[in-house]
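Lab notebook page, bench 4
Experiment: in silico fold of construct C2
Operator: M.H.
Input chain length: 204 residues
Purpose: comparison with the prior construct
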Amino acid sequence: MLTSTESDKSVLVSLGYFPPVNWFMAIAKHPKVVLEQHEHYVKGSFRNRCQIIASGGSLRLSVPLRKGKNQQQPIREVEIAYDEPWQIRHWRAIRSAYGNSPFFEHYAHHFEGFFIAKKYGLLWDWNYDLFLVVNKILKLRNEVELSQSFERQPIGTFDARPEIEVQIIENQLVKYPQVFEDRLGFIANMSILDLIFCVGKLPQ
């Protein structure tokens, strides 16, 4: 749990593909959010993958990347691959999972265009534009900035990049009604899409 001193600071975070609910809960506690744009890509991280809840349980959606040495490549240089129609597949999975959720019809149009009509060359740009949409839907009031350089130990900023971020996510259980909860039970730490379509806003 964040202390009052930490919540008074700006928070530095890595940007992911529809990050988990607790990632947004964590940044909502800070007056300023700094998005890290000078780090290196970490293979197997949430930067290009998210978890939604389908009828059979947790389902991972991964944005495919151009083949090459993505590991330790500057995050702003990581390219998205389009060898397969992953956007259509992701959107179909999202519709199948949340089509009957309370807020799907209210918010689906905010996201559909990204999967149907847009193609992004770079992963970071894709994640950033999706973040802005989610930020607007959730009505987060914190100021958003981009990092100016990479700092291993930032001064005056709470560092919630991946290593520390995992602790934040694990230590804060946020529970809310889910579409398949009657069959699967509550599944924590899902993509923010799960919360938006099921509840429509961050818990108070």
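Observations: The radius of gyration is 17 Å. The first helix runs from residue 4 to 7.
Next step: discuss at group meeting.
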